[in-house]
Amino acid sequence: MSDTVFIDIKKVNRIYRDTNGNPVNALKDIDLEIAKGEFVSIVGPSGCGKTTLLRLIAGLDRPQAGFLAIDGQIIAGPSHEQGYVFQQSTLFPWATVHENIAMGLKARGVYKGQESRVQDSIDMIGLTGFEKSYPHEISGGMAQRVAIIRALINEPKVLLLDEPLGALDAFKRIELQALLLDVWNKTNTTMVMVTHDVDEAIALSTRIVIMTPRPGQITDIFDVNLGETRDRNMDDFIVLRKKILEALHLVISQPQVEYNL
Ligand SMILES: Nc1ncnc2c1ncn2[C@@H]1O[C@H](COP(=O)(O)OP(=O)(O)OP(=O)(O)O)[C@@H](O)[C@H]1O
Ligand SMILES: [Mg+2]
Asked: pTM value?
């Protein structure tokens, strides 16, 4: 493995069985190398294996063939080093915002002496004053902020995000995209995010991985060389969006209309 490879995914295959016992080739020969500090987005249609791939990186599942490693270590199981944010809020409903964030530190026995980090994190995500609120007392966007910071406070080697903003409206989405970018810039955590939103992928990522289903495979990888300020109306942004939509076969060709005026 070369020095620059942080997450190493080689020839990974994951076959499920459907209810009739027939094989479902969820991932076939997946090769992907991710450098430390990258922000990689995975885009593809429903069922192409995005969650399957993320779960394998998280150590929540094992491949039938191939291997996955982080920082030179084969991924043997879930750990705080692979933070995971789900699409729907998975906060504990019986615990406050503060308690939800502190839980990981407490579970690892490292909370004592780090109490101030929890408050610093709450301040960083703009939830000062909501420490004692319960999940049902905050909005969906606020809950996702808590979920993101709850994973990050454990200083994971990689933060895995499965459509973390998918349930939010367009306004909240853009707000949370800015938060993710800010957190990424401040912590330099390696991020792997699944999203259906091509603009979101371009706005946040260093690279965009395109997957196709049956069997789930990587068909394209795009470098995003747009610098820090990513205006969605920039020519380079628009060109890249078009290329990605083409790779996803999502470009609708205009019918040739004949006018008889
Ligand atoms: N536990 C399972 N048992 C059987 N088949 C499964 C299981 N989990 C996923 N699959 C199948 O594997 C394929 C990939 O599923 P996966 O959830 O990874 O897709 P996805 O790209 O995340 O889709 P979506 O965008 O809808 O979330 C799908 O065909 C799915 O039906
Ligand atoms: Mg999924």
From this structure: 0.92
